[in-house]
Specification:
- This is NADH-quinone oxidoreductase subunit H.
- Keywords: Cell membrane, Membrane, NAD, Oxidoreductase, Quinone, Translocase, Transmembrane, Transmembrane helix, Ubiquinone.
- The chain crosses the membrane at residues 15-34, 81-104, 124-146, 167-187, 199-217, 244-266, 286-309, 329-347.
- NDH-1 is composed of 14 different subunits. Subunits NuoA, H, J, K, L, M, N constitute the membrane sector of the complex.
- Helix 5 (149-180) runs antiparallel to helix 8 (203-216).
- This protein has one domain (8-43, 71-271, 279-348).
- The protein is mainly α and 349 residues long.
- The protein has 12 helices and 2 strands.
- It has a two-stranded antiparallel sheet with strand order 1-2.
Amino acid sequence: MHLLAIDWFFILEKLILIALVVTLSMIVAMYATYGERKVAAFMQDRIGPNRAGPFGLLQPLADGGKLFFKEEIIPLASSKFLFVLGPVLAMVTALLTSAVIPWGSPALIAGRTVPLQIADINIGILYVFGVVSLGVYGIMIGGWASNNKFSLLAGIRGASQMISYELAMGLSLIAVLMLTGSLQMSTIVQNQLDNGWNIIYQPLGFIIFFICALAECNRTPFDLPEAENELNFGYHQEYSSMKLGFYLFAEYINMFISGVIMSTLYFGGYDIPFVNEASWGISQNFLAFISFAVLMVKACFFVFVFMWIRWTIPRFRFDQLMHLGWKRLVPLALVNMIITALVVLWLQK
């Protein structure tokens, strides 16, 4: 019997990368709450958090500690197992989407080339959509398991919204796949390195994708599942302590990962604009660090835009939200897909 040789370095490399990506996502989610309050304060001519630490920088730690030490309350009428499963599912699906993202150019460690990507599978985008579609179960289960009519209504709203906007998002993405010829995230980035960013060829597709990303993350003006003036507090109304924290953190992680995915699909990923990195003559590891920093800047810009939109645009009515998704974005995405297909066919002749 031949035993397969185990590449322990490969396993260790992936475990470290998973730990780093999870830690990065959690830290960004923590400080996105701080950033949101500061952006809101700036737009409303206020100061924002300024008590915990210099410039209020320790406020996310204070908020996290508050949620962690609060009393756990599970309603007697709730379905207890599903009540706990809802926020766990929301958090896990939010973190799983980061597994196929190329976070930077490959690094050189112990003589080995290490890609800064947990899993470079050939169906990367399909994997992202599969995991994102599971995220709706976290909202639905949390809303239903609470046995609260307001939470249930919010859960139904969230499911209807996410299903509706995933269709337009998928159609807008097909146009990118036609240009690239691959579902693999690393191939999509490499194609942009060779031929220019997809935003140049797919401006309409990006706008549709961006609007759908707002809806998928339940961000204003699509925050109907959390409409406080209609549904008290939305699908997580009955939650407290870290279960509530999981739901809130999952929203900010989704927002961050959405920014990274948009940067990867349309803005060259870790590519530095108007620069030929190969001509710099710097070490491979330093280049990997710079490329990672560039991707973070792009992603944080999108997070800022998400926050900017929240504090400047009013919420849609639910009928307006569904009308926009089905009667505007889906036809536009179909037209964009057909035009892209015709252009690709014409270029191949």
